[in-house]
Amino acid sequence: MSSESPILQVPEPTYNSSNSGQDDLIYQQHEVEDDGYDNPEDAIPQRLKLDLRGSRVDLDRDTLVNLPESLLIAMFPNGLILGGNTEEEESDGRRQRRHDDDDDLDEDDEYEDHSRDSVGGIEEQVNYVDFDPHCLDYVLRFYQYAREQHEKLNTDNNTEEGGAQDSSEQYRQQLAAATATSSVFYPLLTKQPIIVLREELEYFCVPTNGSTTESAITSPEKPQKNGGIDMVQLKVACGHHLKQHDQIFDALQKNISRENNIAEQHLIDMLCDAGFMRDDRWGYRELEPMRTCVVSMALVLLKTTGPDNHMATAQKLLLFWRKPARKCWWDGTTNEIQGQKVRLWARRTWTLELALV
Fold first, then answer.
1. 321: nearest Cα among 16, 69, 57
2. Is it the case that residue 7 has pLDDT exceeding 90?
3. Helix H segments across the chain?
4. pTM above threshold 0.85
C-alpha cells in the first residue's frame, strides 16, 4: 500500500501450502502417520469446548475457522493446541514426578489432575482461553444476523417476477459486473461481507499533583494518608472514564483536527461509505482484567448497493479479507478524575478486516 496510507497491512503468516488457509492459527501439536485424516480440517474436531474466563462455550468447527483473523489472534496468540496429552506422555510424566521431593508431590498430583480434566482426548478436550466471552458472544450474534440478512436477500431475489426487479436484482447485476473484471470479487456473490473493526486502547495515567502509593496492592483496607494517591484505584477510574467515551470515530477525528491528516480523513470517509455512521458507537467495549487496556469491537454489514453506488468501496475493502490491517496512534488529554487532574495518555491500535459468512 502507499506510504501515506493511514492503515498498514499486517504481513501474511507463513504456512504450508498444503494446509487449508482457514487453519492458520489452529494446528495439531502431534502429527501421527496414518491417522485417517484426509485433509487438514479433519484434524479439528467437529465441536470445540472452550473455557473463556470461567464461561463454557461450545463452538462447531465451521464457526471457529470463519471467525475474523484478528479475533482468532486475540483468542489464540500462541495457536490452538489440539491433542497435546497422550497416554504415553501422561505415563512418562507420572514416572518423572515420582522422583521429585515429597514436598512437591501434592502439588504435582493436583497439576496432573488438572491436565487430565483440561486436555484428554481431542473431542473431549477443554481449551482454556483468556478472552472475554461477551466479546465472542457479540461477534457470534452479529454473524447470525448477517446470515439471516443474506438469506432474506436471496429469498427476495428468488421470488421476483418479470419486471418487478428491485434492489436485490440490481445487487446481483452489480456483483456480476464486478466479478467479470476480476475473480477476486467472486466471494461477494455467495457470501455476506462484514466489516470488522477492533480497537485496543492501552492507557497510562499521570497525576499532575500529589504523591502516589500502591497501598491497594499491599493493604487494601489501609486508609490513605498525607494526600497520597492510590494508583490502582486511579487506573481503574481512568479506564471507566475512557470506556464511557464510546463513539468510534471521535478520537481519530480529534487527531485529524490536530495534525490535519488527510489520509486519516479518507479512512473515515471510506468506512462511512461502506456501512458505518459517523456517530456510531462501539458494539462491544470493556476493560481488560489486570491490564490498563480497553478493548472494543464494531461489526457492520458491507454496503454494495444504493444511490451512491458503494461497489467501488466494497472492492477496496475486499482486499482486507483474511488480511487484517492495523493503524496505531497516540493521544493525550488532561482530565479531572476522582477530584484530581490526571494527564491521560492513550495508545490506540485499530485492526480493520473483512469477514465473509
1. 69
2. no
3. 61-65, 69-75, 87-97, 105-118, 133-158, 167-181, 187-190, 215-218, 231-244, 250-259, 262-274, 311-317
4. no
